[in-house]
Amino acid sequence: MAHDPTPVSDSLPISADDVRAAAVAIGDAVKRTPMEHSKTLSAITGADCYLKFEIFQFTATYKERGALNKLLSLPAETRGVIAMSAGNHAQGVSYHAARLGIPATIVMPAGTPFNKIKSTEELGARVVLSGGSLEEANKAAAEIAEKEGLTFIHPYDDPLVMAGQGTVGLEMLEDVPDLDILLVPVGGGGLIAGMATIAKAMNPDIHLVGVQTEAYPSMKRAMDGVTEVHGGVTIAEGIAVAQAGTNTQAVVGAHVDEILTVPEARMEAAIVTMMEIEKIVVEGAGATSLAALQNYPERFRGKKVGMVLTGGNIDLRLLASAIMRGLARDGRINRFRITMLDQPGSLARVTAVVAQVGANVIEVQHQREFGAISLKMTEMELVVETKDRAHADRLRTALEEQGFQVESARTV
């Protein structure tokens, strides 16, 4: 049947010994992922950047750690487990439940990306879509658990789950003991609670910084004493949690030094940066650490910073859009609206200028029927590839020097 998270201790919900015990319990069933220094990101950001590649787990997410630690604690007579998740916790529970021979049911919000639904089903779980948010899915999961006698595995507020997630921090500090800062994505708080617990025990001087999307700053609001629920639209579905956990709040309040928020545009840019520099794919939540580093450079300059790449399960259509918007943001893909006389040779003159400047035409579209321009004029939308923003500006100037009226569309 459904139950509350594992009872907390007399002080904080978990201790450093709980994290160490989790590391022993999960053993080799979860990969010890690489912790690597990034020379290029360090040069770009001004911080000394170390990356923890949790995207290299079998399910491409750190969530396996906490899920397995909880599953291993269940009695042999367990009838089955149920979890509420937008994807990564679902896959962690599904994968390790199947390995252990435990039937698993996953309740997901109706808007969960198709790739996460498919991946969870392929891992052997029964998937139930219910509600438009994690909170509504959580309510449905509790009802199913009660009806079918299943054990509920909370995605972040169970101390055994928190301790399992903390093994990420244990490995990071074993590999690079002298880190100044751990920069950690935060949704409900399970990861940062576990990491902060072990990190402060190993190095009391280390600085713990959580990162949330501006659309879902639930833990930051909780730490600031704001109780109202806040939500919005975000590409970071994995940390889109409207209400931080109770147990996680206790640990974050005791051990986490600061929580920052980042805008959507920064996360989009960070996804593309990771692809270009590290040649890896991260999802929105997995890009938040780099987004914070780029959004608040002065806070981290000259510091030795450990960042967790928490997941790589991004919808391919979303990834494609992020790439194209990133190219537009950098001035490498540009759209110009050009007004010219509607007469033979006008298009050839435009393309000649493009060729002379060294840009590349991707798409051309004429527009005569709509708009308020003269009947003797035509509008052309021209999408071109350039080296950078300065190259695009040179193209616009060259077109204007040839007498064309040019407007450009910018991406924020």
TrEMBL record:
Family annotation (CDD domains): ACT_ThrD-II-like, Thr-dehyd
GO molecular function: L-serine ammonia-lyase activity; threonine deaminase activity
A single GO BP: L-threonine catabolic process
Domain ACT: 335-412
Reaction it catalyzes: L-serine = pyruvate + NH4(+)
Known cofactor(s): pyridoxal 5'-phosphate
Record protein name field: Threonine dehydratase
